[in-house]
Write a structure and sequence with these properties.
The protein contains one helix and nine strands. It is α+β, with helices and mostly antiparallel strands and 143 residues long. It is an enzyme of class 4 (lyase). InterPro entries: N1-like, Ribonuclease/ribotoxin.
Length: 143
């Protein structure tokens, strides 16, 4: 399994949660396909991420790959990609590792335009809500 750096434990795309396992599944399949020079589906995933919103992935180097992300252990099979994508960069020559850039969503956006989803790693201000938001948190712990 490839190593994914800066990987969050969760990302939330406008109310839809994607777990660390969901992120790993999408990244692994994207890297496996790219290593073989293969794509799947009508939109030919994985493909180079066309950054129409000019996201700043300062922690990763181009080229960036885009791949559909699905929930609950499912991986993209070439059919409906859904509204969310995983973006990875700084891809190793042997495809053994990459850097997590973002989960992005087309939900509520113009065609082919993405908004960053919220995560607990690189995109804490994205579109969505993390599990701890809106909850009362412990102010002090006495042991």
């Amino acid at each position: 399994m490839p190593t994914i750096y800066y990987e969050p434990s969760v990302c939330n795309c406008d109310g839809v949660d994607y777990s660390k396992a969901d992120i790993e599944n999408a990244a692994t399949l994207a890297l496996e396909l790219a290593k073989k020079g293969r794509t799947i589906g009508d939109s030919k995933y994985p493909h180079v991420y066309n950054d129409h919103k000019h996201f700043d992935f300062a922690h990763a180097e181009a080229p960036y790959l885009e791949f559909p992300i699905l929930q609950k252990g499912r991986t993209y099979d070439g059919l409906s990609p859904g509204a969310e994508r995983l973006v990875i960069g700084s891809i190793a020559d042997d495809f053994s590792s990459a850097v997590y850039c973002a989960c992005v969503t087309q939900s509520g956006e113009e065609k082919n335009v993405f908004a960053a989803c919220k995560d607990d790693s690189m995109n804490p201000r994205g579109k969505g809500m993390l599990p701890t938001e809106g909850k009362s948190l412990v102010g002090e712990i006495e042991l």
